[in-house]
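Q: Give me the 3D complex with NAI.
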Amino acid sequence: MAGRERFETVPYNEIIGSEGDTMKLKGKVALITGSSRGLGREFAVGFAKEGADVVINGRGLEKANSVAEEIKNLGVRSIAIAADVASSSEVNKMAEDVLRAFGRIDILVNNAGVNPFILEAEKIKEEGWDQVIDVNLKGVFLCCQAVGRKMIEQGGGKIINISSAVGFLGEQGFLPYSVSKAGVMMLTRVLAYEWSKYHITVNAIAPGFIAGGMNTPILNKEMLVSGLTQQVPLKRLGKPEEIVQVALFLASEEASYVNGTTLVVDGGMTGYRSVGFIDLIAETMRKRG
Ligand code: NAI
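A: Here is the predicted complex, encoded as structure tokens.
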């Protein structure tokens, strides 16, 4: 009875792990797209430290191989697979290759993403629009579909999609990027709904400004960083490991009832008005006495 299976209770020791076994992901196989650098590499290292075997993916093999070597030194298995996430044939082959190497895929982190330009809408070229949407949105769909089919066959899995706070905020100059990241949140919801019956959970993370990855080139630009941090209630950029911790949670059994949601990890930025609206009202009221 499918309905009853979905509400079966899980013994508490299966959720918290057996005594002495503190590794969250021991024995799990994780595929992390775009993991040859940036946040993807950080996810790979973090997952390996928690015992997962990790598949490194990049468009080319050279950097991916060197990250896979680094991961093996942490005492788990790792391979590198070159695949463009925007190509269905390459993504389908990647899913087959993971199965061939490890026999299963327990966790998929859709991390690969691009943000190649800052342009007002009237200046965006069709190729630019396509590039961003193809990698950030179609790529997430293709990887979910290829890996999801394997997860359905094997009886479950966990998918984590990397969105962005910009998917909520609608940042000017970032039209296709914002649209792609908002799309990832909706894709996450619908997939979670459709695939719950297969014991697959699908969640997303929306990071704010993180000191690493695609932000690396601006980190030494003091004015820019200070302008960005002013928009964050915690008054600092996020650290990559603060995103990794959330991904680890979503990938672990501790998140067994978290499904279809987007966890915003942005130091409070999306819930805050940078113009200090309340301060303005307070000041006006003070003046009125
Ligand atoms: P990054 O540019 O350092 O890394 C992106 C990775 O994706 C690279 O390894 C790149 O080779 C790979 N990639 C790009 N196109 C690909 C394709 N077609 N096929 C396979 N791999 C491809 O950027 P970062 O910062 O590490 O970004 C990782 C994810 O986090 C992205 O989805 C990004 O949008 C998201 N993000 C990053 C934030 C930040 O502050 N760094 C904030 C919010 C979201």
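A quick observation: The pocket of NAI is lined by residues 33-34, 36-40, 57-59, 84-86, 111-115, 135, 139, 162, 164, 207, 209-210, 212-215 (CB under 6 Å).
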